[in-house]
Design goal:
Structural class: mainly alpha
Strand content: under 5%
CATH architecture of the domain at 270-398: Alpha Horseshoe
Number of strands: 0
Order of helices and strands: HHHHHHHHHHHHHHHHHHHHHHH
Oligomer: single chain
Radius of gyration: 25 Å
Number of helices: 23
Helix content: over 70%
CATH topology of the domain at 270-398: Serine Threonine Protein Phosphatase 5, Tetratricopeptide repeat
Shape: globular
């Protein structure tokens, strides 16, 4: 019991590694301790540790053979191992032993989505919601299904229908705010987020969504205040800290943004997004290039497919004077940026690539990238790029 509660304390204080270690010791001493097994199962899901998930789910099944939860967890492990037949057997068993629980239906719907059996998935999600109108997981799955089928209006209509059935569920208003914001309706998204906060004042997701909608509506000061409130309510949740740092950057308060990012890295030294953002900020404001390079490498390792991470690392190499390495990374960034489903492109990537080509003496390629950057808005370097293009077009003096 002492190891279990110590694990809980470490988890709440933002130290997941120590928490996992204590929970492992708890189940070593008492394998029948259900709370510790469930805590380790949650760790396994968050880390993608299939072996641990198999161990804990099977122990949970032994301890609670009449509960669907262990079967749902083991099904998730089997799906991760591409054992779809085994996963299906587990989920059908979950439904058989607990037909009034939404758990089996919701997870079987997830399997059907993977199998691209969308009509069956929709039916199963609805069955889960029939059994528990307040269940968030099947509703989120259903909305994701509609988005995957490019039906955002249907998703919003179905969400509104569920809210009418469960009008006091704060999590549903968080989902509503997210959908409205994605659709460009910042005003009503903010109203939905505020409703979520009113219903669940300490809910970190509600506060974070409210801050995002306030920012989208142009109320940066209000958003910053909401971030501060979220930080007080959940001092070990780094998400409002990250959003606050991004707000400070947008407001030109880069010194405080740097300090705020550093606070996150004290809690999560390997957070790739924060390492990437801090590296870029340092490069832009002439801070320690070696530290920025190290941070950019952390960002790239953690986000190997993100154009922004390749751009930051390439930009760091540019500042170090290693121009060929800069070009290699920035070409990758440009390729990743061009492949994005989202039509919004990043002008900085092509600007950085043009500068790197210029340093290598490849004026034709530099010019092509500068021209490409000018086609993208917003572009904070547009005036500078026009001057560079004029310089490249100027005839060489004999």
């Amino acid at each position: 019991m002492a190891h279990y509660y110590l694990g809980q304390a470490f988890s709440l204080s933002g130290n997941p590694e120590r928490a996992e270690s204590e929970w492992r010791e708890a189940v070593r001493l008492r394998p029948t301790m259900l709370d510790a097994q469930e805590a380790l199962a949650a760790v396994a899901v968050s880390k993608g540790d299939t072996d641990l998930l198999v161990q804990t789910s099977e122990q949970i099944i032994r301890l609670q053979p009449g509960s669907p939860n262990g079967y749902a967890l083991r099904a998730a492990a089997r799906m991760a191992r591409k054992d779809m037949a085994g996963a299906e057997d587990d989920l059908k068993k979950a439904i058989e032993i607990a037909p009034q629980s939404p758990v089996g239906y919701s997870h079987l719907a997830g399997l059907r989505v993977v199998q691209k059996q969308y009509a069956e998935a929709e039916k199963l999600y609805e069955q889960a919601l029939d059994r528990d109108p307040n269940a968030v997981e099947p509703l989120q799955g259903l909305l994701n299904l509609y988005f995957e089928q490019k039906q955002p209006a249907k998703a919003l209509a179905r969400l509104n229908q569920q809210i009418s059935k469960s009008p006091n569920n704060g999590s549903f208003y968080v989902l509503q705010a997210k959908l409205l914001l994605a659709g460009g309706d910042a005003k009503n998204a903010q109203l939905a987020a505020q409703k979520a906060v009113d219903l669940t004042p300490s809910h970190e997701d509600a506060l974070l969504m409210l801050a995002r909608t306030q920012l989208a509506a142009g109320s940066a000061d209000q958003a910053a205040a909401t971030c501060q409130r979220a930080m007080r309510e959940s001092p070990h949740d780094v998400r409002p800290v990250i959003l606050l740092a991004q707000l400070q950057e947008l407001q030109g308060d880069w010194r405080n943004a740097e300090q705020t990012y550093q606070k996150v890295l004290q809690l999560q030294p390997d957070n790739p997004m924060v390492a990437n953002n801090l590296a870029y900020l340092m490069l832009e404001h002439g801070l320690n290039t070696d530290v920025a390079l190290s941070l950019a490498q952390t960002g790239r390792r953690g986000m190997p497919d993100e154009a922004s991470a390749a751009d930051t690392l390439g930009w760091a190499y540019y500042h170090k004077g290693t121009y060929q390495s800069a070009v290699d990374l920035l070409e990758e960034a440009a390729k990743e940026d061009a492949a994005k489903q989202n039509p919004k492109k990043d002008a900085n990537i092509y600007y950085h690539l043009g500068l790197s080509y210029e340093k290598l003496g490849d004026k034709a390629r530099a010019k092509a990238q500068f021209e490409r950057a000018l086609q993208i808005t917003p572009n904070p370097h547009a005036n500078e790029i026009r001057l560079l293009l004029a310089e490249l077009d100027r005839p060489r003096q004999p």
